[in-house]
Design brief:
Residues 211-276 form the HTH luxR-type domain. It comes from Corynebacterium phocae. InterPro entries: GAF, GAF-like_dom_sf, HTH-type_RamA-like, Sig_transdc_resp-reg_C-effctor, Tscrpt_reg_LuxR_C, WH-like_DNA-bd_sf. The chain has 279 residues and is an alpha+beta fold. It is 53% helix and 14% strand. It contains ten helices and six strands. A six-stranded antiparallel beta sheet has the order 3-2-1-6-5-4, with helices on both faces. Strand 1 and strand 2 (40-46) form a beta hairpin. Helix 1 runs antiparallel to helix 4, helix 4 packs parallel to helix 10 and helix 5 runs antiparallel to helix 6 (193-207).
């Protein structure tokens, strides 16, 4: 019964890898599944030149991936074999493939790590913050797709029926996210308080199927600012959209980042999505 769902997960991973490569131009993207014994298994890849890393099993705590699982945070190294922040059990495989710089981020669904998303280059160049943000955003999109598949699996098991046609792909989720952000912006321009509340309720309903219980409460204005950021708006553009000053937007962003423990505006969007405040 579950085999079609597993295929859905595989398709979501492959789509995420392809999307990230196209968006960043980085030659190598990989995904490693976290096994029951806390080892990682590289199951999907694009751009590898050799079979050295294909289907590689990574011991707990080993290398970049092991550190990601241990810390539940993104990890990047510019020169893998000389990096002092990781262990080096897999150096031979890395050298055989010829990778130098690697960035990896966790993929977390319902607070459990499901796998690790990697990008890498075959030259000693530093992958900057922008790349880390792109990898993180792609991982968060993948988390949404995997979360939906998990919900549909539970529905199949409890109701004895499949709803395969209702599982949304990555493009459909992106459309929902864009619609959610634009709907929040529309609500912000409505003067009628009752109508504005109705629109905000609709926004909440768009994320309720896959949201987790929020331990952090964000105000409506903070969510409006995050919705603007999710659409790629600058602070000035968000201020114009919301009819407030740019400094006020900055103030809301600082408040959001403090509440969510985020260091950048993009991390704040990712954190808000993780708690179900944004789709």
């Amino acid at each position: 019964m579950d085999s079609p769902r597993i295929k859905d997960d595989d398709e979501a991973v492959r789509a995420a890898l392809s999307s990230l490569k196209n968006a960043t131009g980085i030659p190598v993207t990989m995904y490693a599944t976290l096994l029951a014994d806390n080892r990682l298994h590289i199951t999907h890849w694009i751009g590898l030149r050799t079979p050295a890393l294909q289907n590689l099993i990574i011991d707990p705590g080993a290398g970049v991936g092991g550190r990601v699982v241990a810390t539940r945070r993104a990890v990047g190294v510019t020169d893998y074999t000389r990096a002092t922040t990781i262990t080096h059990e897999n150096d031979s495989a890395i050298q055989d493939e010829g990778l130098h710089s690697i960035v990896a981020v966790p993929v977390i669904v319902q607070r459990e790590i499901r796998g690790v998303f990697y990008v890498g280059v075959h030259s000693p160049v530093r992958l900057g913050d922008k790349v880390i943000e792109e990898v993180t955003m792609t991982a968060r999109s993948l988390e949404q797709d995997l979360a939906v598949n998990s919900v549909m699996r539970r529905m199949d098991g409890s109701k004895g029926m499949a709803a395969r046609g209702n599982v949304m792909n990555g493009a459909e989720w992106e459309q929902i996210r864009s619609t959610h952000s634009k709907l929040r912006m529309l609500a912000n321009r409505v003067d009628d308080e009752d109508l504005r509340k109705e629109l905000e309720t609709l926004c909440d309903q768009m994320v309720s199927p896959v949201r987790v219980k929020q331990s952090t409460k964000l105000s409506a204005r903070e969510l409006d600012v995050l919705s603007c950021v999710a659409l790629g708006h600058t602070n000035v553009e968000a201020a114009e959209e919301m009819g407030i000053g740019a400094e006020t937007v900055k103030s809301y962003l600082r408040s959001v980042m403090r509440k969510l423990g985020a260091h950048t505006r993009y991390e704040a969007v990712n954190a808000a999505r993780r708690i179900g405040a944004l789709p």
